[in-house]
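Q: Could you predict the 3D structure of Undecaprenyl-diphosphatase?
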Amino acid sequence: MNTYDVVSAAILGLVEGLTEFLPVSSTGHLLLLGHFLGFESKGRTFEVLVQLGAILAIVSVYFHRLVTIATKLPHDPAVQRFVLGVLVAFLPAMVIGAFAHSFIKEVLFNPWIVCVSLIVGGFILMVVDQRGLGGRYRDISEFPLSMTLKIGFFQCLAMIPGVSRSGATIVGAMLLGSNKRAATEFSFFLAMPTMAGAFAYDLYKNYRLLDAHDIGLVAIGFVMAFLSGLFVVRTLLDYVSRHGFALFAWWRIVVGAAGLAGLIVFG
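A: Sure. Here are the predicted structure tokens for Undecaprenyl-diphosphatase:
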């Protein structure tokens, strides 16, 4: 591995962890940053596999709660309903993602699409945040199954790079009656099966393309994504509860506009 690839992988891993759980699109940031760094992995596997670091970050933060859920699952109806709700929300992405996998990576993984999605999504997030939607549901265990299924379809919009998985689920949950904190926390739990499924499916489809060099770069990105993801998960809920999503909306718009300018000038 040359030094430039190592540094690029570390930067991209850091960005993955910082953006995965924010409503700003981690995949969009990785594709855009990778484009200008001249970093392109085989089959676009790095951008997906590096998410394992962010997955483990959220699992480590919620470890005790996950253990409690697993312990109560066999006999607690409320816990059973919550777990079922997360799985129901995951189903649309599992089905649509499997069928559209090739189209997404070959057609939609495009920096122009990323920039436009970032800008449009930023304005949508700003409008939803300013309108103060939600409030009926303040605890994720209260979400009805019909609501979680609809949130799952909102999440599928994030198959367009630049839309943001967390952003789509948060906006969807708020439009359906959740307050900001509960919507953000549900996006955390939904991230676990969704990102783990995407990781496993992409690895299954592309493991033949990977060599020791690629695996080494993914490992570097994984470590950086884990460390930066820990910071975000531990601080995001409190920040959102106090300040909302305006900062992230403006960030999307600025990054998208800067990306468009860079593509026009540099190609």
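Q: Anything worth pointing out?
A: The chain has twelve helices and no strands.
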